[in-house]
Amino acid sequence: MLGMTNASNHLNNQLWIFWKEPSLILIQTVECPQIIHCQFTSAAMHGPLWISSVYGRHTRAERTALWNTISSRAPSIHPWIIGGDFNCIHSLDQHKGNCNPCNNSVEDFRECMEAGNLLYTHPSGGHFSWSGKRSNGKLWRRLDHVFSNQQMLDRTSSLQLSMLSKGASDHRPFLLDLSLDTYSGPKPFRFLDLWVSHHTLEGTIRSFWENNKTYNGMKGLGRKLKDLKAILSKWSKEEFGNIFQQLKEAESRASRAQDHFEANPNPESLVEFNKANAELLLFSKRETDFWRQKSCIRWLKEGDASTTFFHNVVKNRRQKLRISSIKDDLGLNIEGDSNIASHAIDYYTKIYSEESVSINPELLSYIPKNINEGDNQMLCAVPQEEEIRGAIWDLNSHSAPGPDG
């Protein structure tokens, strides 16, 4: 009925595991109180995948063993998904009803997941996964949750969790959709901070600006800047290339140079060793600067965080910002990248194709005046040079305003 080829039961039939071969091949299971760990070989991911199913106990004291088990396995080097009925809410907004939740239980839950660097997957399609009746009345809570580690996010382009309709159970089922496809559409132009360190950047920009036609007005400036983007993109490919591949090659050269110097400690091998290490530091800094800029972290000073930290921030932001579905004018869900893109194009085409609506000037007299004449003159006044300079100098040196300012 489920379309699966294999099944196994655990914890006195409280947990059942179903999987389909050859998509998933079970390697081993580790059964612990309240949780079962399954190691699979994933055909899609071409490697190991851990999936842990949870059936938590009802009291805080009993769930202590569950948190300890999760914490002991959290430092996993393989992709890991953990989910199920934790019998505990993860935040206070996951509760509704007159029976107040235990704040200490919530803190235990959060501390366990944060200590293990397990990231919460927010579901769509509903807020509460369980409902029931207590002596104080009706109660709604989200007791079912799904988490994943950073290794899992690194191997997937999207991880979408949907809350389905309730059946015979008092819990709503979850559907987890993992996508390994990568976005192959056009990429926007980005001025990279690491370019500034290259000695030919300023000359490249000056040469283009002085030797190309100048157009009038802001529209002309925008056109010239657009032409400059193509020049900088070509320049970046020639001068920088693939910084990630260059880093890997630099690591290999540095390792070989170190081995050669240790085997032949002479002045020539020392020069080679120092040169390889200098190149490795250069390419490492380029990668760190790249991910620092992509992460948009502003509260850290130079050198305060590692490349891994910035990369994880970028991955997590991409997961949160990814649009998995939208609603049309009739309230119907639209899913799939191509369908969402087509609907967005149609929507904005319709907006900007509509005829402008004429406004009766007499209606303006009914709009209340909330500012006086002095305020109006101040707002319409041309700013002084000092004000313009101060506003520009206050901008973040590693950022730029968008088309709307």
Overview of the structural elements:
The structure is a single chain. The chain folds into 2 domains: 6-179, Deoxyribonuclease I, Chain A (4-Layer Sandwich); 193-321, no CATH class. The strands form 5 sheets. It has a 6-stranded mixed beta sheet. Strands 7-11-10 form a 3-stranded antiparallel beta sheet, with no helix packed on it. The chain has a 3-stranded mixed beta sheet with strand order 9-13-14, with no helix packed on it. It is extended. With 405 residues, it is an alpha+beta fold. It starts with 5 loop residues before the first strand and ends in a 12-residue tail after the last helix. It has helices spanning 60-73, 103-115, 150-155, 201-211, 217-239, 243-263, 267-295, 307-321, 337-353, 373-380, 385-393; strands at residues 6-10, 15-19, 24-32, 35-42, 47-55, 80-85, 95-97, 119-120, 123-124, 130-134, 137-141, 144-148, 158-163, 174-179, 325-327, 333-335. Helix 4 packs antiparallel against helix 5 and helix 7 (267-295) runs parallel beside helix 8. The longest helix is centred in the last third of the chain and has 29 residues, at 267-295.
